Amino acid sequence: MFQALGFVLFGFVVGVYGTLVGAGGGFLVVPFLLLVKHFAAAEAAGTSLVVVFLNAVSGTIAYARQKRIDYKSGVWFAAAALPGSLAGAYGVNFLSQRSFHIAVGILLGLVALILLVRPHGALAGAHARAAKSAGGLMPVARRVVDAEGNVFEYRYDRFVGLVLSFFVGFLSSLLGIGGGIIHVPALVLLLAFPAHISTATSHFILAITAAMGAASHAALGHVRFGPALAMGAGAVLGAPLGAKLSRKTKGAWILRGLALALLFVGIRLLVQ
């Protein structure tokens, strides 16, 4: 009874924080299951993806009510991320895990430091790069008006976004975490998405990609459904609160919250 309650409470925290920064929460669930609950690696990944899926669905519903999801871009990016995740699952057998973890850990750490120290500068630089690439291979102009009447206008090169999403799916599969923690900074820093739109759209993408990952792991018997459903229930309750907090939080502070998550994953990869 107390163990189940602990899973629910932990899932609630995952739902709030993961939805606030648009990362889904897999970066918290996997180390918790490995280091605290001593799950096998495959079971930790499979169980985590079920929680991430439930959290992403709940968060997507909350963000949909706020009208902050760029559905058109999200569908394109999810379509590109799915084959990337399959390629990552296959390619993991041909890479040196140690050197790969060190390289990605350093990369995530550097991105985290940029977002922590100069979130406004990072946003300004991203918008400058977007302006220069406005005439790219597949230029796209987007305009999103949320439920409160706030207008978000931005431009990006769809081809760059598709290639980027493929590699996000590839990396997330190799690292064994949901792609949201990589997709959000990529959307903000490389495609100049507004922070609030990137977190909401990332959750929408994550709901699609996590569904396939969770189903695959369930078919392989890698999911422990008791803990998964307990944490998932907590995440479903916490996700709307995370979305509500996101609406009231400035974009720079959302990026700082994401930076802490990136730093956590980067350090974990380097130590591992």
Could you please describe the fold and organization of this structure?
With 272 residues, the protein is mainly alpha-helical. It has one domain (2-271). The chain is built from 11 helices and 2 strands. It has helices at 2-21, 26-36, 41-66, 71-91, 97-117, 119-132, 158-175, 180-191, 195-219, 225-248, 251-271, and strands spanning 139-145, 151-157. Strands 1-2 form a two-stranded antiparallel ribbon. A hairpin with a 5-residue loop joins strand 1 and strand 2 (151-157). The longest helix has 26 residues, at 41-66. The mean pLDDT is 82.
Give the secondary structure arrangement, pairings included.
Elements: H1 2-21, H2 26-36, H3 41-66, H4 71-91, H5 97-117, H6 119-132, E1 139-145, E2 151-157, H7 158-175, H8 180-191, H9 195-219, H10 225-248, H11 251-271
Antiparallel strand pairs: 1-2
Helix pairs in contact: 1-3, 1-10, 2-3, 3-9, 3-10, 4-7, 4-9, 5-11, 6-8, 7-8, 8-9, 8-11
Can you summarize the main beta sheet?
2 strands, antiparallel
Report Rg.
17 Å
Number of DSSP-assigned strands: 2
SS element count, helices: 11
Number of domains: 1
Proportion of helical residues: over 70%
- How would you classify the helix and strand content by structural class? mainly alpha
Calculate the mean pLDDT score and round it.
82
Order of helices and strands: HHHHHHEEHHHHH
Q: Strand order across the biggest sheet?
A: 1-2
Q: Calculate the terminal CA-CA distance, rounded to whole Å.
A: 33 Å
Low-confidence stretches: none
Categorize the overall geometry: globular
- Strand percentage lies at 5-15%
